[in-house]
Amino acid sequence: MVNWDRKRGCTCFNRDAGDLCGCSPVIYRRSDKKLFAVSYTFQYTIDDRNDFEIFVTQNAHTNIFSDSIKQFDIGFTIDTRDTVFIDRSRTFLDPVLVTVLFEWKSKTNEDISLVMKDPSGNIFARMSIENFEDIPIVDIMFPEITTECMIGIWSMDLVSNRLNHTLASLDFLIVSVKGMKKDHNNNWNIDIETVDSFWPIAGICSVRKDSNVCSKQEPKIMTIPLEIKDCDQNRWSAFYYDVKTNW
């Protein structure tokens, strides 16, 4: 499972923490990978020699409404040198603390607040921000709340208190282990609709488990639906002939 960010250029490929610039993939945390594994299931029983790759896209939104705001983001661990989040999934599992950062294009003395809303649109927290730093970083603690109120897509607004105007907004996903149930195989399942609304499936492809350069020359066994392409024909797949090609 990889996370591409090709816009940053190739300036940080030697970093131990991982490549944040798109020269090579950034691997999600193990907890994120587990979350996707129990959320998206796809099986084909006719030929168990095939594996499937699923391409999911992030349906998160960041809206900048003010010319004075350069960036607005939320996450866990910050790369302090480049001031970006190492984990950009915006997906939190039973969070105790989240971190919000924003960066000014032009410094102002605006009286601002962070307003966080739950999935129902109710204001969960409001914090005044001291506008003394070019890139304020704010930690927000989550109190213990019921699972029903926790799971879903939350929103965060950066608000001008003087004008009562939203300068920027974003959304993020919270899921909870408490909301998971075990299936007949004793695996944890999560509400697929909740995850799919934030991480919709953009593509599916198939690949033979014994795939290699030589096996591609062999006749293909048509044992999967025609609408599912081979992974070597999908530019987003790890089996595509050149994963560095822009897509």
UniProtKB/TrEMBL annotation:
Keywords: Membrane, Signal-anchor, Transmembrane, Transmembrane helix
GO molecular function, one term: protein xylosyltransferase activity
Compartment list: Golgi apparatus membrane
InterPro entries documented for this protein: XYLT (IPR043538)
GO biological process terms held by the UniProt record: proteoglycan biosynthetic process
Superkingdom, natural source: Eukaryota
Topology versus the membrane: Single-pass type II membrane protein
A Gene Ontology term for the protein's cellular component: Golgi membrane
The protein's name in its UniProt record: Uncharacterized protein
